[in-house]
């Protein structure tokens, strides 16, 4: 495998180094800038209304400068009054003007302050609420799935695991692109912006508490570094990684990956199979697409199946997982099924079909 030199890796890390932050999914009703503009327009409307009220009753006010109050003086008075500055150079002298100040301008002053101060309070409240959500999210997150890379491979992997019953709240996406994380949170997943080759980024994704980790970056060298870092932080998680080149797969396994998928090789083999038999290619595509048609699932052996052969079970058994070995259904060494075995079967996809997760590490080939 051709890995870039230390300087190149450092430059790549610097390019992807952004403010590491966690983004939780939320429903944004309105853009913040639009909310601020709306509040400013409301405050300006209150200011104009106050100035017009003062100007309409200008005969009841006295200006210490020239004695009379014009439109500019009305706006000036409204501004210093609503902001509670109150210089006292323009004062209400008639009973009508004083009553208007008591019952009209004072409520307008309160409304003006609520609009402006309320914006600041809402921002502070939102930050406090977000911090509380983040702390609560970290405290309850356990046995989740971390997906590194929200590209085509990462999205497809998430769709597959979610089709088997995994809740969106149990998925955390890590990607250096803010746009990718925004897309992930829009779909209901939690996201961490940052370079996954850095341990502090993976720690923010609570990778040390994860049950399974899917590594699907754009580059093979990045996949190796992420796998090394993830395995160092979590010795017991099941790590599945994707690489582009077949020659890099052994290095991923040595780095700690339980299973390695060669994306280009798998696509090529599926293309070749489709050329030989388009129907067989369609069946394979159906099998690897969870939640529709036929599903390839792994499940434990039930007590009623103990002692039987794979052919005698109700499901169509493809392979038997015994210990660290994956045996074909027709392998003579399988013999009778044992309670500790797991079966890889083909079943018709229904809402009740879910893959029973296996916490044991896969065999390193």
How would you explain this protein's 3D organization?
This protein is α/β, with parallel strands linked by helices and 365 residues long. The protein has a seven-stranded mixed beta sheet with strand order 1-6-5-4-7-8-9, with helices on both faces. The protein has a four-stranded antiparallel beta sheet with strand order 10-13-11-12, covered by helices on one side. The two termini are 18 Å apart.
Properties at a glance:
365 residues; alpha/beta; seven-stranded mixed β-sheet; four-stranded antiparallel β-sheet; 11 helices; 13 strands; disordered N terminus; disordered C terminus
List the helices and strands and how they pair.
Layout: H1 6-16, E1 21-23, H2 32-56, E2 61-63, H3 71-82, E3 90-92, H4 95-140, E4 145-148, H5 152-163, E5 171-175, H6 178-186, E6 190-193, H7 199-204, E7 212-215, H8 220-233, E8 238-243, H9 249-255, E9 259-262, H10 263-276, H11 278-288, E10 294-300, E11 316-322, E12 325-328, E13 342-348
Parallel strand pairs: 4-5, 4-7, 5-6, 7-8, 8-9
Antiparallel strand pairs: 1-6, 2-3, 10-13, 11-12, 11-13
Helix pairs in contact: 2-3, 2-4, 10-11
């Amino acid at each position: 495998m051709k890995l870039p030199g230390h300087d190149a890796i450092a430059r790549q890390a610097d390019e992807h180094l952004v403010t590491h932050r966690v983004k939780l999914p939320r429903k944004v009703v309105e853009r913040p800038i639009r909310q601020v503009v709306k509040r400013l327009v409301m405050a300006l409307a209150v200011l104009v209304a106050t100035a017009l009220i003062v100007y309409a009753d200008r005969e009841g006010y006295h200006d210490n400068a020239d004695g009379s109050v014009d439109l500019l003086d009305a706006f000036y008075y409204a501004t210093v009054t609503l902001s509670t500055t109150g210089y006292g150079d323009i004062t209400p002298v008639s009973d009508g003007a004083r009553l208007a100040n008591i019952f009209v301008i004072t409520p307008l002053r309160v409304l003006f302050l609520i609009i402006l101060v309320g914006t600041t309070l809402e921002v502070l409240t939102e930050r406090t609420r977000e911090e509380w959500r983040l702390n609560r999210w970290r405290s309850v997150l356990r046995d989740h799935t971390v997906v590194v890379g929200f590209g085509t491979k990462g999205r497809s992997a998430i769709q597959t695991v979610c089709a088997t019953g995994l809740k969106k709240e149990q998925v955390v996406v890590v990607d250096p692109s803010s746009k990718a994380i925004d897309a992930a949170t829009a779909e209901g997943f939690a996201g961490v912006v940052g370079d996954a080759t850095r341990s502090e980024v993976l720690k923010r994704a609570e990778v040390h508490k994860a049950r399974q980790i899917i590594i699907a970056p754009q580059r093979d060298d990045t996949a190796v570094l992420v796998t090394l870092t993830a395995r160092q932080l979590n010795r017991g998680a099941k790590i599945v990684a994707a690489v582009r080149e077949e020659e890099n797969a052994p290095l991923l396994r040595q780095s700690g990956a339980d299973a390695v998928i060669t994306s280009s090789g798998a696509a090529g083999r599926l293309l070749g199979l489709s050329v030989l038999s388009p129907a067989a290619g369609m069946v394979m595509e159906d099998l690897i697409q969870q939640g529709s048609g036929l599903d390839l699932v792994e499940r434990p052996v039930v007590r009623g199946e103990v002692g039987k052969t794979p052919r005698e079970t109700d499901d169509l058994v493809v392979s038997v997982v015994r210990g660290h070995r994956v045996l074909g259904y027709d392998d003579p060494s399988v013999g009778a099924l044992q309670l500790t075995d797991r079966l890889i079967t083909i079943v018709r996809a229904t809402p009740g079909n879910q893959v029973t997760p296996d916490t044991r590490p896969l065999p390193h080939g």
